[in-house]
Design brief:
about 25% helix, Aminopeptidase i, Domain 2, 2 domains, about 425 residues, 9 helices, 6-stranded antiparallel beta sheet, alpha/beta, Aminopeptidase, about 30% strand
Length: about 425
């Protein structure tokens, strides 16, 4: 596959995945196309060497793997399906000066200012009663622009360019339409109408939902020399796609190759589907067993946690340690933190650098300024749950947690090939 084809497939994945539910559904479709078999957590499993399997939880997290020899351990790649966004509240209806708005809750560390003046749509999952009074669920995506958060004109806020604070309760409820005099609107009725329009005529009553607003502008290759990919949710669907592509292009070997994409990373990962929850461990126990068997398997295993890294911004270069300032299109970034905000150690970093030397891939390092707080990701959390050697890795990006982020057109394509080499490792060098 060429770099151009890879990036076009990536763009299609990003556009098809406005929520974690849609991202997992898109990944499931691709896995099924290549022969992966679904597993159900509520049933017993019969795993065979050479088999290809996947299992989902809550429709928002997924583990997919090719089954190798149990004594070889696993080569695992991790990412997360969620992104900072605006979620619709349970009783969201707002009627202000004849405008119908929806109250929203901020999910994760959203960079709020870029959400103003964007063409927004709505997507997620809806729970409803059908005409047999059975509870059903359905993914929904309005796709078209249905809302906007207009900025306040500069004439009414002359100091806006010298300092703008956004109040998430009062400043960001999106406007959906104008109301007639004394008109009352039930948001759940609007959802019912949309479900029926989409062909779900059995919907009698919408009970609950998990819905998020998103920017309708398509992901795109941009720049005068096509150097960049601009899109919403690059953090962390970019890594989900790279991990998926690597797994799908990995030829079966003696070693189990596994991809895990967890939900709820942006809000701490403590949930049934998060990296600090039991999902991945429960899958590994079914592969290797519990107790000593799992401990021995994890000692022979390694995880590469792939999340985005902060590329050095030319307008804000002072925010970086000058010796650890990753550039877009200069390779994946090994993320290091002495206080264990990242799980990288000398063993896992050396192994990855060796893989890059073998494949000719570029590699960079990121360490925060010593006077700046460091973020974290699923790496330390998963390592803490499993006791597995872990490398925290990321693709350099700009605008992390904005409604539209920026990455390089070369980095994801190159990382995919390196991860395929990682999946093929029959033995980890530090075990020899």
């Amino acid at each position: 596959m060429s770099k151009e084809h890879f990036n076009q497939e990536l763009i299609q994945f990003l556009n098809a995945s406005p929520t974690p539910y849609h991202a997992v559904a898109t990944m499931v479709a691709k896995l099924q196309e290549t022969g992966f078999q679904p597993l159900n957590e509520s049933e017993s499993w019969s795993l065979k060497e050479g088999g290809k399997y996947y299992v989902t939880r809550n429709g928002s997290s997924i583990v997919a793997f090719t089954m190798g020899k149990p004594e070889q351990g696993a080569r695992m790649v991790g990412a997360h399906t969620d992104s900072p966004c605006l979620k619709v509240k349970p009783q969201p209806e707002l009627n202000k000066h004849s405008y119908f708005q929806l109250g929203v809750e901020v999910y994760g560390g959203v960079l709020l200012n870029p959400w103003f003046d964007r063409d927004l749509s709505l997507a997620g999952r809806v729970q409803y009663l059908n005409n047999q009074n059975q509870l059903c669920h359905q993914l929904i995506n309005f796709e078209r622009p249905i809302a906007i958060i207009p900025s306040l004109a500069i004439h009414l806020d002359r100091e806006v360019n010298s300092g703008r604070a956004v109040n998430p309760q009062t400043d960001i409820p999106p406007i959906l339409f104008q109301l007639a005099d004394d008109e009352k609107v039930d948001f759940r009725e609007l959802l019912k109408e949309e479900l029926i329009r989409l062909g779900h005529s059995d919907c009698q009553e919408v009970m609950e939902y998990d819905l998020s607003f998103y920017d309708t502008q398509s992901a795109a290759v941009i720049g005068l020399k096509d150097n960049f990919i601009a899109s919403a949710r690059l953090d962390n669907l970019l890594s989900c796609y790279v991990g998926l592509d690597s797994l799908l292009n990995h030829k079966e070997s003696d070693t189990t190759a596994l991809l895990v994409c967890n939900d709820h990373e942006e809000v701490g990962s403590v949930s049934t589907t998060g990296a600090q929850g039991p999902f991945l461990k429960s899958v590994l126990e079914r592969i290797y067993g519990t107790g000593e068997s799992l401990t021995r398997a994890m000692n022979r295993s390694m995880l590469i946690s792939t999340d985005n890294a902060h590329g050095i911004h030319p307008n804000y270069a002072s925010k970086h340690d000058e010796h650890h300032a990753p550039k877009l299109n200069h390779g994946a970034v090994i993320k290091v933190n002495a206080n264990q905000r990242y799980a990288t150690n000398d063993e896992t970093s050396a192994l990855y650098r060796t893989l890059c030397q073998t494949s000719g891939s570029k590699v960079q390092h990121f360490v925060t300024r010593t006077d700046t707080a460091c973020g974290s990701t699923i790496g330390p959390l998963t390592a803490g749950v499993l006791g597995v050697r872990t490398l925290d890795l990321g693709l350099p990006t700009f605008g992390m947690h904005s409604i539209r982020e920026l990455a390089g057109t070369e980095d994801a394509f190159e990382l995919s090939h390196t991860l395929i080499r990682f999946f093929k490792l029959s033995q980890l060098p530090f075990l020899i």
